[in-house]
Amino acid sequence: MQSRALQSAPLKTGGTKAVDKFDVIIIGAGAAGLFCAAQAGQRGRRVLLLDNGKKPGRKILMSGGGRCNFTNMYTDPAAYLSHNPHFCKSALARYTQWDFIDLVNRHKMPTTKRRWGSSSATTRRRRLSIC
Questions:
Q1: Which of 53, 62, 69, 83 is the most exposed place for a label (fewest CB within 10 A)?
Q2: Would strands 47-51 and 69-72 be described as parallel, antiparallel, or unpaired?
Q3: Strands 47-51 and 111-113
Q4: What is the rounded distance in angstroms from the CA atom of residue 109 to the CA atom of residue 41?
Q5: Of 16, 51, 17, 53, nearest to 37 (Cα)?
Q6: Rounded to an integer, what distance in angstroms lies between the CA atom of residue 38 and that of residue 59?
């Protein structure tokens, strides 16, 4: 299947290489890819986000049984499997669940906290803005 740009259009670079037009090329428009693209764009980078799905971030809406879970309060490196056990420690220490919750709060998005520790968007409209 051919990858498509975020606008769901074929990539046309006008004869120049994509690496000459973009500072960052991200493959995958899931949660991590979208977040990475947003962060790079906020840092002034020219970003190309590629995905083979019909809509970027579509699977995020399904997380948590359709509630669009966006974080878990009890994230722990021990809950992840990796060939390098220190990778999860490093990754989770650099950007914590609290950092993401602060980001959501700065944008004044109403959220629902569940007793088992997950947080999700409160309304369908807000789910779409987060997801």
A1: 83
A2: unpaired
A3: unpaired
A4: 21
A5: 51
A6: 18
